[in-house]
Amino acid sequence: MTSSAARPGPLRSTLFLAITGLLAAPGALAQTAQDAASTAPQSSSSARALDAVTVRGEYIPEPMAQTSEIASFVTREDFQRTGDSDAAQALTRVTGLSLAQGRFVYVRGLGERYSSALLNGSALPSPEPLQRVVPLDLFPSSVLDSITVQKTYSVRYPGEFGGGVIDLQTITVPDEPFFNLSVGTGGNTETTGKRGLTHYGGGDDFWGYDNGTRKMPRELRDAIATGNRVDGAFFSQQELARIGRSFVNAPLTLLQETDSVDPDVSFGGSAGYSADMGSFRMGFIAVAGFENKWNTRNGVQQEGANINDVLEVRTDYDFRSTQNDAKVNVLLGTGLDWGQHKVNLTTIYVHDTIKETRSREGFDELFGEFVRDDYTEWFERDMVNNQIAGSHSFGEYDDLTIEWRGSFSKARRQAPYERGIRYRLVDTGTEQYYVHSASREQNYTRFSTVDDKVVSGGVDVTWRLPVEREAILSGGLSYSDNDRSAESREFRFLALNGPLPELVQRQRVDFLLSDYNISQGYLTLRETTGSSGAAAYDATLKVKGAYLQAEAEIVPALRGTVGVRYEDATQAVRPYNLFSAAVPQAAPPLANDYFLPAGTLTWNFAENQQVRVGASKTIGRPQFRELAPQQYLDTDSDRLFIGNPYLFDTEIRNYDARYEFFFDQGGSFTAALFYKDLDRPIESIVNEAGGTIQQTFINVPRAELYGAEVDFRRYFDLPIQADWWGQKRLYVGGNYTYTKSEVKAKAGDVVYPLGFNGQPVDALQFVRVGSAMQGQSQDIANVQIGIEDEASRSQLTLAATYVGERISARGRPGQPDFVQRPGTMLDLIARKGIDFGGTEVTVSFEARNLLGTEYQEYQELGGGRVDINRYDLGRSFSINLSAAF
After folding, report:
1. Cα separation, 175 vs 272, whole angstroms
2. Where are the domains of the chain?
3. Nearest 10 degrees: CA dihedral of 394, 397, 399, 404?
4. Which of 449, 520, 513 lies closest to 485, judged by CA?
């Protein structure tokens, strides 16, 4: 047996020390690894003694072996097994992760604000008006190679870390050329072939692009350009009538019921090519896809009141909503590889549009009448991310490595012609009909935009020290500049010249808002956009970071990593007045710098077992929208949000420990404990302003979170011997996370709620001491059972996910908290490979939510229950055909 000429990797140093000890002459223990390796052929006795060497860590898989942190990994194999269409869905299979609103990932019960999302190590912009964190449903699994979820902090990453870092890795340059095409269709039992709501919109709505129908009218743009509010104080009645008549009417206002909602469709393709060019190797890759999906919800929305400590329903709506989601994605990549040097350029474009038509009717206690509210909405989101990255190694054994990256990303959200109108039910005893008076019942038309961009860059240097025991020193610099601008304009057609004639009040909506009624003076356009910064803001977050980290083998089988990160950040939200030069009152910028230490120990005590422990200090910053005093309607919950400019950073202390045991055939068992102490975490509270219920944000004094998680996965050979059965094997995987959290406050603690002009208020008036943190589920579990046959390219997987109850928002004083119950989702995924005329064809089938779990958000008190939002999700089925050429 002869030793390898290559230097051992960082987690194989136990083997290296054993070899060195056996081969080295007495007194020569200071030899380097290279010297020891070169002496191996000179000693036959030493060579025979190698047979007895115990190799520790030999069976630990590469992802686990290459990181010193507690982490989870989602690979392309996992994407194929579970059939998840985007990153958000795929991450629900990871231990301790759950999904909120179908887009945002909660890690270990901490909300999306405590988790950062990176694309190939670079920060991302967000097109969402309420969150700075990017929604992960934007990233289809077809453009992803893997996802890393790191649950213990490493100083290499940004300091904004609470639950974890989610790093999405895109497909890289291929090893050999390929070309794939796919097409699919599907449906939902609550939607496909059933009656649904829609509005016409524009001719290109199917593709998710507006053809100009929703473009703000030139007459309105010209009026806005004057800098004046568009109302009777600055414009004549004739001018207002001309502007009002320019609004698109029937295509964007009239709700229609379809007899049968169309099935879902999707198609896409990918291609890659690489070639050797002398000492260089160059490659290209392209991925493109499109999908169009429909989703109808039928349910209830209620509001309640505390009557003698019993919660009673006071406002009760039945609602129907049909949503059409069209998504386009494109990824282009090119790479150049020469020796120890690599440079990659990647561009990813995602365009996601939601067209929603909804209506609700029922008794509104505040209004005092039976009413109907109709809405038509169009939310168009797009993101373009350009990245360039390089890696350069020097030395025979890559002793010195320099990695660098640069990224420019832009995200945009447009919501033109958000329309809502309320009708009141009139019951004469002989007939019932709805009316709209344009005074007591009102309507609105909104135009809003969010522009978000991120410029970032960084460099990391790793130096493998020339010492006996392996030691690695690394350091780096990073910079990120995130800028956002947001603006919302609102307009109403009101009966300002006297009551509307009764026949006009009873007209269909497109007749009601017609040019004739506007020209006759029955309806007058008035801008109702908020002032003093309530409708527009600019925001910025600039972060400069530097870190230094050392990783070394302390004693055989025990490795340590210790480092510190320094971050200097300035975050500011600057509301501005759309109608005057007066500068609205704003809180001072959050300008902070931090030293953030982190350390881990890894004890590799057996060939396939190890224990990790870690401790760190990290931070969580408020999101832009949480700081901006601008109202925003969340269409998922139909609740009004408004930011609080008097928020602070959250400081977090993290402690983790995990045992890892790896079997053969890729099996593993892990068990972990974790604890987090949060100083001034941000929570959402519900309050009432002038009869309007809205959510805002505060820093509660303190919270703690702790729990445990276990994960098991293994392949089993099945004891069936038959030709027809083939070489099938059974896959079993599962994980469970238990989390407990508690919000804390004591006498003398203060908070800074919205409406108190930055003055401190007794925390016990706003904090529910002992309650769980928002978004934290006590129990999260995943189970996967599958049968696979690599020879026949077939796979059948049954996957179940359970997420326990969690608080979605604090109830207003005297009322219980809002609680979500995600429940259990059971999915079946099947894949089968077929050779068709020399072409590899794969047929896949997916059945989602087989148990028919419904969405529930509610309040309970004294035996009374109020369903804030409750609707059937339905069961979804899809089939996909892909071919590899």
Report:
1. 9
2. 183-213+248-494+530-884
3. 50
4. 449
Q: Which pTM value belongs to this model?
A: 0.83
pLDDT for the residue numbered 56? 46
**Helix H or strand E segment including 250:** helix 250-253
Which 3 state secondary structure label does DSSP give 692?
Answer: strand
CATH architecture of 183-213+248-494+530-884: Beta Barrel (2.40)
Which of 255, 262, 216, 214 has its CA nearest to residue 376?
255
Q: Residue 690: what pLDDT?
A: 58
Candidates 185, 187, 134, 178; CA nearest to 284 is: 178
Q: What is the mean pLDDT of residues 598-603?
A: 94
Strands, DSSP E only, in 131-279? 144-150, 164-170, 178-188, 196-198, 256-258, 264-277
873 neighbors 849 (Cβ within 8 angstroms)? yes
Please state, in angstroms and rounded to a whole number, the distance separating the CA atoms of residues 69 and 559: 11
pLDDT at 138: 64
Q: What is the pLDDT of residue 627?
A: 86
| Bridge partners for 224 per DSSP | none
pLDDT tens-digit series, residues 659-687: 999 887 678 899 999 999 999 999 888 76
* 237-245 helix and 218-225 helix, angle to the nearest 10 degrees: 140
Say which range, 394-398, 804-808, 869-873, has the weakest mean pLDDT. 394-398
Q: What is the model's pLDDT at position 257?
A: 95
Q: Name every residue whose Cβ is closer than 8 Å to that of residue 780 and which is 6 or more positions away in sequence.
A: 95, 96, 97, 98, 109, 736, 737, 739, 802, 803, 804
Residue pair 13/553 in contact by the 8 Å Cβ criterion: yes
Closest Cα to residue 661, out of 716, 606, 737? 606
Rounded Cα distance, 341 and 403, in Å: 10
Work out the mean pLDDT of the chain and round it to a whole number. 84
Q: How far apart are CA 310 and CA 477, in angstroms?
A: 57
Read off the pLDDT of residues 721-732 as tens digits, 9 standing for 90 and up.
655 556 788 889
Instruction: Report the alpha-carbon distance of residue 123 to residue 117 in Å, rounded.
Output: 7
Say if CB 777 and CB 808 are below 8 A apart: no
Residue 336 has pLDDT above 60, yes or no: yes
Q: Are 800 and 735 spatial neighbours (Cβ–Cβ below 8 Å)?
A: no
The helix/strand/coil state of 704 is strand
Integer Cα distance of 816 and 311 in angstroms: 9
Q: Are 418 and 445 in contact (CB under 8 A)?
A: yes
Nearest to 250 by CA among 509, 445, 438: 509
pLDDT over threshold 60, residue 77: yes
Confidence of residue 24 (pLDDT cuts 50, 70, 90): very low
pLDDT tens per residue, range 813-827: 778 889 999 999 999
- The CA–CA distances, whole Å, from 553 to 3, 603, 719, 833 equal 21, 10, 44, 46
Calculate the CA dihedral of residues 29, 35, 39, 40 and round it to 10 degrees: 90
Question: Of residues 392 and 694, which shows the higher confidence score?
Answer: 392
Provide the phi-psi class of 837: left if phi over 0, else alpha when psi is between -120 and 50, else beta.
Answer: left
> Using an 8 Å Cβ cutoff, are 743 and 768 in contact?
yes
Which residue bears the tokens 């879902």? 264
CB distance 97 to 105 below 8 Å = yes
> Helix, strand, or coil here: 753?
coil
Model confidence at 133: pLDDT above 70: no
416-433: burial string, b at 16+ Cβ within 10 Å, e else: bbbbbbbbbeeeeeeeee
